[in-house]
Amino acid sequence: MNPRHITAVILRQLYLYKRSLTRLMEIFYWPTMDLLLWGFVTMYLRKTAEGIPMFVSYFIGALILWDILFRAEQGVAVSFLEDMWSRNLINIFVSPISVTEYLVGLLLISTFKVIAAFAVTSSLGWLLYSFNIFKLGISLLPLMLNLVAMGWTIGLFTSALILRFGFEAEILAWALALFFMPFSAVFYPVRILPNALQAVAFFIPASHAFEGMREVINTSAFPVADVLWATGFNLLYISLSLVFFARIYKRVLMKGIIPKVGE
Amino acid sequence: MRILEVRGLSKSFEHGFFALKNVSLSVSSGEIVGILGPNGAGKTTLIHSILGLITPTSGSIEIFGKKLDHGNRLELLSRMNFASNYVSLPQTLTPWENLMVYALMYEVENPRERCARMLELFDLYHLRKKISRSLSSGQMMRLTLAKALLNNPEILLLDEPTSGLDPEIARKTRELLKDMASRQGLSVIYTSHNLWEMQEVADRVIFLKAGEILMQGPSSELLGKYNVENLEELFFKALKTAG
């Protein structure tokens, strides 16, 4: 693994974000809009649905944490798409940079995006709704890391599919993460789901992260079981996503379609 | 000294379509080889195979005396480069930023000096801080060529590199390539539909049709052998002969 190659991938994205207002909006604008809209809805509902304790904490906390997963996924998939859109992918694949180095660069860029977006959403949560996400204490870190890992997994799967099918698959960069949202129990407990979907939710790391968040808010206890399940599944899924990307890359070379993916 | 050797290279795609059929060729140090052929002849497939972007169905490619495979591809690529009109550089970056990114990827020594030198060479230095999107297509192509020479490659693969360039810049580019080939031993594999350009720049031409080599040799030799005035006449004669 050559650090200069990885730095090149990161530098290319940093140059892009340095001057692109539209790309910066992707990091700051949407999370801010989500937090404003759903935050005020939450405040309103709190007044009318007083039976649910910790309502604001559940909802605002879930919004902030879901955005971590979404930014992590976008950080990989949209950054990959940037090289497709600019017809730059062949230049990268004929340079001495390995696919692993390229993907590591994308994962690091994704981490920067998550940190930047989290700084905005957590500050707004505190300023607008007096919600301090850091009250989750040390539990916050493993919950966040697991959401980032799941975002990476979805981002890697999406990028592999885009590599294979070209622009036909680019919609997945926005759609695939949202597909998991209903089963991830973001805004409601898993027990609300029908039995069959509860079984599905069990295998989704994010559902454990959000259950864990609610447990911390309710009891202040570290959600050991949820963190362990989420970590275990994430390790499995991220390994599978890397294998999937490698297989797709090999297949694309066999079929000779890398030159066509940007068309 | 031979630095590229392609032996019996074939590539078939789905439905049994053969893009390359048993292609063999070699390129020596400092040689400029032009690949000619109509659309769909296999020129781009050949170049992409040499770059490792396409896995051949059979045959082998030897570069710098090493058989191109998954294990040494990146090492070999560090001594090569590529430019084409169907590949671009991010237009949201400035020419300077684009070259700096690739200077890191190719681990170029003294990257700032080298990037400045390349931009000067292609008359782009005064545009270095402009967003690449604002460059004309010819300027963008020059930037792509600047990237292709950034790592001082020993083998340069150019797929239609001068399309979009004005005649003066295209001429300068050809002169630069010829100069680098004779002075530094740069080997160039070059595809173009501009047969006059090919006749001027290539030491040797290879004529491909339907994935097969129809003829190869120095332009002057082929012109004499087939009793034609120029490569354009040869092109049409070859197409007619091959049916």
Average pLDDT rating of chain A: 89
How many domains make up the coordinates of chain B?
Answer: 2
Give the helix level of chain B as a range of percent. Answer: 25-40%
The helix-and-strand class of chain B reads alpha/beta
Strand order of the largest sheet of chain B: 6-7-8-3-9-10
CATH superfamily of the largest domain in chain B: P-loop containing nucleotide triphosphate hydrolases
**What multimeric state do the chains show?**
heterodimer
Total number of β-strand segments of chain B?
10
User: What string gives the helices and strands of chain B in order?
Assistant: EEEHEEHEHHHEHEHEEHH
Radius of gyration computed on alpha carbons of chain B = 18 Å
Q: What does this molecule look like?
A:
The complex is a heterodimer of chains A (263) and B (243). Chain A has one domain. In chain A, α2 (21-48) packs across α5 (99-129), α3 packs parallel to α6 and α6 packs antiparallel against α9 (205-219). The mean pLDDT of chain A is 89. Chain A has 263 residues and is an all-alpha fold. Chain A has helices at residues 3-19, 21-48, 55-85, 89-93, 99-129, 140-165, 172-180, 195-202, 205-219, 224-255. The longest helix of chain A has 32 residues, at 224-255. Chain B is built from nine helices and ten strands. Chain B folds into two domains: 2-79 and 156-241, P-loop containing nucleotide triphosphate hydrolases (Rossmann fold), CATH 3.40.50.300; 90-152. Chain B has 243 residues and is an alpha/beta fold. The longest helix of chain B is centred in the last third of the chain and has 18 residues, at 167-184. The model of chain B has no long low-confidence stretch (mean pLDDT 90). Chain A binds chain B through residues 2, 4-5, 7-8, 11-12, 15-16, 19-20, 82-83, 86-88, 90-98, 250, 253-256, 258-259, and chain B through 11, 13-14, 19, 44-45, 48, 51-55, 74-75, 77-78, 80-82, 84, 86-94, 97, 100-102, 104-107, 131, 147.
